[in-house]
Design brief:
heterodimer; A: 112 residues; 11% strand; B: alpha+beta; seven-stranded mixed beta sheet; 22 strands
């Protein structure tokens, strides 16, 4: 697959999937994004992103029983795959490397 | 949660989601959206929840989720169909001759079909435009006397005046009669023949489009007239007509109280203006009319309660009226009243004094049949041509099959092709209809009401698709049945494929064609027979003038007669009431002496004339003499009858009829002469008994008949106009030349003949096209055979024979089939005429020779081309 790298939003979603290991389904993920990043996300965006992650092979999913507020509709619960974990770690590694390159002086420059 | 239950997300949005969402994603997405929805509802923001739900559904409408992303793929044929259509167009373009023959045949067929169907539709929906049409009936009657019986459209005036007051089932009743009068507008005078006399409630029952005025108040004052738009225009041009004053018959002032749109062409009543029957009663000084039950005065219409038992009602009505008609029953005469639904009158009714524009159910069915035949012929053409040229498609089919096309797919492909051809033909046909409609309308004599567009177009194009399917089914099956192995090996003798069916179709086609040719010959012969029929009087040199009994003209009788006779162009001048002895005579009751001396009741046609009438028309006497100026008692005592009357009363011979008495004293008259029968009702009908009565009172004159030398018509008529202007400057000269009138009488027949001719010739042409195509195909297939035969020494004639033989055999078979069919059909048609020819074997032979001749010409063109072709050319290719 062409794009195996992780987009910014995808990274966020994938991180939440890992974090909410048991209960990672689209609505819950969207709520978490709300809480953590304080930005309103539309459900379809999250859903699309999950679909993309699935295509890239970073997550798998299985269907679970739905609750009454879902009108009894079952929900798709996502789990991270090895490839997904690897991708997250790669991203973190990249970021860490970059952070390491930053000197306090350059930080100051930025804020001036 | 219970609260959530009560609130449902917008249904259409939910449905939309279910529609587009891939099934494996649906539960998850829908569940999530429900979850959001219930959360928002719990926050008490229901409107917002609903709005957000809709937004969510819309925002989910993305490629990754839309159905085609579902994991199992359905077969997608669209691309294949696109290819079918493309290939079809290529084939249509490639086989130009076949395509154009097919297209011409089909579009001519569809055009004829459409035109005829428009006419049929018009004829079938006559008078259906009235809102109450389903409940409107005309009361007509059958009159019986001791010597005869007949049915007539008009009834006595009391029926229309009283019935609706006597029977609750009869909601309303009105009478409709015809009147003519002289109308004066300012200083201009017009003769109006087409004024209708009606009751005020006539306008409640029938639906006419009112342009101006209040139809409740049209006849509030009896001195009123309601004009049609065209008459108002004739009188006043573009100036307003409402409220204007007109003068009727010299001295009666009437006011225009309403303007109506001209009656639609599919209305039995074609009027120019209306005046009230109340006014007529005043004019005629007839106050007791509304109590007069007998006779045939007016067309009487009733509007019944929906669901009325018509038979029971009429039984009651007849019983009741019988009690009023004692005068008639004492004389052994009776009336039997019956109802005619207004919608059926146009096609079903053919009574005495019926509407002149009545149609004929027979003609409608004849033309429907012709329309169908044309369409079928066009279909057969398509089938024959396509199967005959199927061999050209053999390789295509073979290769497709080898690649893996299923037979069903090939059938679909060829069906698509034929549907395309038929759709193109339909488009051509619509264009042709537009082009031809004005001509067709002037032919039929009225404007067609084109039905509403969308529905008609849908019908037309679905019809075209159906036509394509029907025409294409057999060729599709035939073409797709090729065996790929033999096709690709080149061992194809598929020219023979489907030959039996093709032969059957050709026979069918030629049967229809020959039958139509026979019909054309018969119809033509019958029309010529009618036109050559002796009328029994000379109408070549007769001018008739209608002056509506205006006194000023009658006062000038002597002067006019003398002045005209001074001119050598004029030979006789007759004043009478019946300038037209060919159209709509009235009839009246009279007691007639039989051969045994008893008197029987009778209702006879009668005409009132003066002593010059017989001279004017060159009538010949079978016995006795005509009225004479010299014998004064003739006017009060004498009567003349025709030969039919002699036969009807059983007098034996015309001579024996002289001296018989008619009528009761003091009005008893003696028969002094019998005229040879002359035809006064048109040649559809036998000559009926007639009595000719001299006019006693000069005020009864209303018309003049002149015998004139019309070899130089302008001179004679110029002279007439000059004298008329001098003597009667006030009165318009309204003259007609009798021959024209008589020709008009056959208008509908002539029209029928021309229409029938046109459409029959068209269908023959279509069949000819088909034959041409077939001959082309079959010679093309035998080109090699012909080449070989030629090199071996076959003669040109021999070759033509070879190619024509098959066809000639088919045509002979068709001839055998067509003759009984045509004979039966034509006998049926001819039985409607009183004066008719017989279908003779000459017609069959002519038709047969014509068919064989035309087809041989068509075929031999192709055969000759093939025979003259250099065999080296046709044999070169392998």
């Amino acid at each position: 697959m062409k794009g195996t790298n992780l987009g910014e939003f995808e990274e966020l979603v994938l991180l939440i999937v890992v974090a909410r290991s048991e209960d990672a389904y689209s609505v819950a993920i969207a709520r978490t994004i709300d809480e953590v990043s304080n930005r309103k996300v539309v459900h379809s965006v999250v859903h699309a992103s999950l679909n993309r992650l699935n295509k890239k092979g970073f997550v798998t999913s299985e269907m679970k029983e739905g609750t009454s507020e879902r009108g009894g509709r079952s929900k798709r619960v996502y789990m991270v795959t090895t490839a997904g974990r690897q991708a997250l770690e790669d991203v973190k590694l990249q970021r860490d490397k970059l952070w390491d390159m930053i000197t306090p002086a350059s930080l100051v420059k930025v804020y001036v | 949660m219970s609260e959530t239950r009560n609130h449902k997300p917008p249904k259409w949005a939910d449905r939309f989601l279910e529609w587009y969402c891939a099934p494996d994603q649906l539960d998850d997405v829908q569940g999530a959206l429900y979850e959001y929805f219930s959360e928002r509802v719990d926050q008490g923001r229901i409107t917002r929840a609903r709005r957000m739900f809709i937004l969510d559904v819309l925002s989910h409408f993305r490629p990754h989720i839309i159905k085609r992303n579902k994991t199992h793929y359905s077969k997608n044929n669209i691309g294949m169909y696109k290819n079918f259509i493309k290939v079809s167009f290529r084939n249509i373009r490639k086989h130009k001759l076949t395509t154009s023959l097919n297209l011409i045949g089909l579009s001519v067929g569809i055009t004829s079909f459409l035109l005829i169907m428009m006419w049929v539709n018009q004829e079938k929906t006559f008078d259906a435009f009235h809102e109450n049409a389903d409940n409107l009936y005309r009361i007509s009657n059958t009159f019986k006397s001791e010597s005869e019986q007949f049915s007539q459209a008009p009834s006595g005036p009391a029926l229309g005046a009283q019935l609706h007051k006597l029977y609750p089932q009869i909601v309303n009743a009105a009478r409709y009669g015809n009147n003519s009068a002289m109308i004066k507008v300012g200083d201009q005078s017009f003769f109006e023949n087409n004024m209708s006399l009606v009751d005020a409630n006539f306008f409640e029952m029938f639906t006419w489009e009112v342009v101006q005025g209040d139809q409740q108040k049209f006849f509030e004052n009896p001195n009123s007239i309601v004009l049609t738009e065209s008459l108002a225009k004739k009188y006043f041009g573009d100036a307003p007509a409402m409220g204007k004053m007109l003068t009727m018959d010299d001295n009666l002032p009437i006011t225009v109280t309403g303007i109506l749109k001209d009656p639609p062409s599919n209305s039995q009543m074609q009027f120019d203006s209306f005046i009230s029957l109340d006014l007529a009663k005043i004019m005629w000084e007839n106050t007791t009319m509304d109590d007069n039950w007998g006779g045939g005065w007016f067309h009487t219409y009733v509007q019944l309660e929906t669901g009325t038992d018509v038979d029971a009602l009429m039984a009651e009505v007849n019983q009741f009226i019988a009690t009023k008609l004692t005068w008639f029953s004492e004389r052994n005469m009776s009336y039997e009243y019956f109802l005619q639904p207004i919608k059926s009158i146009h096609l079903q009714s053919d009574l005495r004094y019926d509407f002149g524009n009545n149609g004929s159910a027979r003609n409608v069915s004849i033309f429907s049949t012709v329309a169908l035949i044309i369409l079928i012929l066009a279909c057969i053409n398509y089938i024959n041509l396509t199967t005959a040229t199927a061999i050209k498609r053999a390789k295509e089919v073979g290769i497709k099959k080898v690649i893996g096309a299923l037979r069903g797919q090939l059938v679909v492909q060829y069906l698509i092709e034929s549907v395309l051809v038929s759709l193109i033909a339909a488009i051509f046909a619509v264009g042709l209809v537009y082009l031809l409609l004005p001509g067709f309308e002037s032919f039929v004599g009225y404007k067609m009401t084109v039905p509403e567009y969308p529905s008609v177009l849908t019908l037309l194009f679905s019809g075209a698709v159906l036509l394509g399917l029907i025409a294409g089914l057999f060729p599709a099956l035939a073409i797709s049945s090729f065996n790929p192995l033999s096709v690709l090996k080149g061992q194809l003798n598929s020219g023979r494929r489907g030959t039996t069916i093709r032969k059957l179709l050709v026979v069918g086609q030629f049967t229809a064609t020959i039958a139509l040719i026979i019909a054309i010959i018969t119809v033509n012969g019958q029309m010529r027979h009618l036109q050559n029929q002796e009328l029994g009087m000379n109408t070549d040199e007769v001018i008739s003038i209608d002056f509506r009994g205006l006194e000023s003209v009658i006062n000038n009788k002597e002067a006019l007669t003398n002045r005209l006779l001074e001119n050598p162009n004029f030979k006789a001048v007759s004043f009478n009431r019946n300038a037209y002895p060919v159209d709509g005579l009235s009839n009246g009751m009279v007691m007639v002496e039989t051969s045994t001396g008893d008197k029987v009741s009778s209702s006879l046609y009668h005409m009132w004339v003066d002593t010059e009438y017989a001279t004017a028309f060159d009538m010949t006497m079978a016995a006795g003499r005509f009225f004479s100026k010299e014998i004064e008692s003739d006017i009060s005592n004498a009567i003349v009858v025709n030969e039919s009357a002699v036969a009807s009363f059983g007098w034996g011979s015309p001579e024996a009829g002289i001296g018989k008495k008619m009528g009761n004293a003091p009005n008893e008259r003696t028969v002094i002469g019998v005229v040879k029968d002359f035809n006064f009702e048109g040649l559809h009908k036998r000559v009926e008994p007639l009595r000719i009565v001299p006019i006693t009172n000069p005020t009864s004159y209303s018309a003049i008949t002149l015998k004139a030398n019309l070899s130089q018509p302008f001179e004679a008529i110029g002279f007439l106009q000059k004298i008329w202007q001098e003597l009667n400057p006030e009165v318009p000269l309204d003259y007609t030349i009798m021959n024209d009138d008589i020709r008009n009488q056959y208008n509908s027949e002539l029209q029928f003949r021309s229409l029938f001719l046109i459409f029959s010739v068209l269908s023959v042409v279509i069949a000819g096209l088909g034959l041409f195509g077939l001959a082309t195909a079959s010679t093309n297939q035998r080109i090699k055979e012909i080449g070989i035969r030629k090199t071996l020494g076959a003669s040109t004639f021999g070759l033509i024979q070879l190619i024509s033989r098959d066809f000639v055999i088919l045509i002979l078979v068709s001839l055998v089939l067509a003759i009984p069919l045509a004979w039966y059909g034509m006998e049926q048609w001819l039985s409607g005429f009183a004066y008719r020819i017989n279908v003779s074997w000459v017609f069959f032979v002519t038709a047969g020779l014509l068919a064989i001749g035309v087809s041989l010409l068509t075929i031999s063109y192709q055969a000759l081309k093939a025979a003259y072709r250099n065999p080296t050319k046709s044999l070169r290719y392998e």
